[in-house]
Amino acid sequence: MPRPGRPVPAPLTNAAGRQYDNTRKRREEGRMTDATIETASATSEDEAFLFELYGSTRTEEAEAWGWGDREREAFLLQQFQCQQRAYRLQYPHAECRIIRCDGSKAGRILTEEGPDEIRVIDISLLPPYRGLRIGTALLRRWQAVAAVCGKPLTLHVLRANRALRLYDRLGFRTVSGDEAYVAMEWRRGTPIPG
């Protein structure tokens, strides 16, 4: 639930303000500029989708294990449940939002607004929606919210994650890190690339 007084990112629509039914064609062409991208608070009814999304982020890793479908599914479920508990403990005020592209569930973004920052805890997209600038559009929205609130937008990312290049392009700067992770932030006044 958005906090009172905090701007809520507006839905993205095409120039005409309407939805299109050619999402598959745009996916195949690698362009989503005229897609409607919206987010809505996750509910308990989204749990199965969130598990599917989590599993999709670990597909390559899970296939390398050489396990059968049941073993892999059981392990991923256990890992998903652990991640959910860890997020609830570490970020008790986090807001989980389901990302929809032209009405279809495409991913999730998990954020938390604190007194000194707005943190992007996790952003994940199903494979058909990756590389289509959906993440770019969402992060630009959050940059605008952070600018209005006068707070930095922060995140942590694995050094090996391809999204690191996206964050660099959007003006995020490394503020700390270790062998595995990089802490990054974007501050008001940092240009948002067009």
Count of discrete domains: 1
The percentage helix is: 25-40%
CATH superfamily: Gcn5-related N-acetyltransferase (GNAT)
Radius of gyration: 17 Å
Main sheet strand line-up: 1-2-3-4-5-7-6
The unreliable regions are: 1-27
Shape: globular
Order of helices and strands: HEHHHEEEHEHEE
Please provide the count of β strands.
7
**N-to-C span:** 30 Å
Mean pLDDT: 84
Percent of residues in beta strands? Answer: 15-25%
**Class inferred from helices and paired strands:** alpha+beta
- Give a short account of the largest sheet: 7 strands, mixed
CATH architecture: 3-Layer(aba) Sandwich
**Can you tell me the CATH class?**
Alpha Beta
What's the quick description here?
By secondary structure, the protein is α+β, with helices and mostly antiparallel strands. It contains 6 helices and 7 strands, in the order αβαααβββαβαββ.
Describe the model.
It is a single chain. With 194 residues, the chain is an alpha+beta fold. It has a single domain, classed as Aminopeptidase. It is 36% helix and 24% strand. The protein is built from six helices and seven strands, in the order H-E-H-H-H-E-E-E-H-E-H-E-E. It has a seven-stranded mixed β-sheet, sandwiched between helices. The radius of gyration is 17 Å and the shape is globular. This is N-acetyltransferase. Residues 37-193 form the N-acetyltransferase domain.
